[in-house]
Amino acid sequence: xGPLLLVLLYPLPCVSGLPFYNGFYYSNSPNGWxxxxxxxxxxxxxxxxxxxxxxxxxxxxxxxxxxxPCHYHYEPALLSPRPVRVxxxxxxxxxALEQDVLVAIGLRxxxxxxxxxxxxxxxDGEREVSLQxxxxxxxxxxxxxxxxxxxxxxxxxxxxxxxxxxxxxYQHPWGRYQLNFLEAQRACAEQDAVVASFEQLFRAxxxxxxxxxxxxxxxxxxxxxxxxxxxxxxxxxxxxxxxxYGPRSxxxxxxxxxxxxxxxxxxxxxxxxxxxxxxxxxxxxxxxDGAHIAKVGQLFAAWKFRGLDRCDAGWLAxxxxxxxxxxxxxxxxPLEPGVRSFGFPDPRSRExxxxxxxxx
Length: 360
Prior knowledge:
Residues 1-17 form the signal peptide. The longest helix has 10 residues, at 181-190. 11% of the residues lie in helices and 35% in strands. By secondary structure, the chain is mostly beta strands. It has helices at residues 181-190, 198-206, 279-288, 296-305, and strands at 39-44, 47-53, 58-60, 66-68, 70-75, 85-91, 97-105, 108-111, 119-122, 130-133, 142-150, 153-163, 165-170, 194-195, 215-216, 221-226, 241-247, 256-262, 267-270, 292-293, 314-315, 321-325, 338-341, 353-358. It is elongated and about 75 Å long. Mean pLDDT is 86; it is low at 1-37. The chain is built from four helices and 24 strands.
């Protein structure tokens, strides 16, 4: 008598509460999930589940509310509704799972992390499972995936959200290449900004950003944008573009940073004052005017989105002295628009005015 083969049948895992797991792992293979924009399709029992999202990038600004659209339907249409599970998550730079945002089963839902209390599922229309985000933050910019799960079948679609802002290079007061990755993150945050993503830097390059010093990006790579090829910046033989040093060690390697500042919610202005000021006097003058001394990111945003144009150098909160030029003219620096910098002068010098920021 041959050996007895005993087969044990285990029940499929089932979790009554949230979050849930549908028992599948995914890859970016052609037979796996759909990694692109638009919609995904899955067929089960002759019925096709289709998830539809927008193919256009959504643009918004910090502090606003936004809806990331997502709908699903069946082909052919079903006569009776079916219970589904919905999951929203935010992808990292390389498309891997980064952060859970919200999961929902019927009327029950749960949000996670920094999204807790700021997101909800909008189900106003038939088979609508759009994600609403309140009080947008800089960190909310990125790609989001909407997944609809019907039993063992699931399909998903991608929505890209971008906050309006401006990319600017930032150096430590001690000079070039002084920041490791964590210090770059902190430096940008201190200037009312975040470390820029590659997509943000690339778009800035398309708009003409040209900078010969390499800086950290959000994915911990180090890159720099060149609009005009020249010998000191990679040589004349390389075409213009975003040059890359690749990923670098977070604690060991040191570079500058590329920061991303959002569109302003308040006002940046040059304070009319009868005399030039030290850095301490500049901070006090802004306070007396009911404002705060402006940060670098705020000055760049005012130049980019409010057309702030002034030929007077002024102190900023980090101890640098800068001025914004929209219309280049004689005796006002180079012939291109931009924010000019005098570096980090002696804070006791009385050669500059001050730029103040008044929140709305």
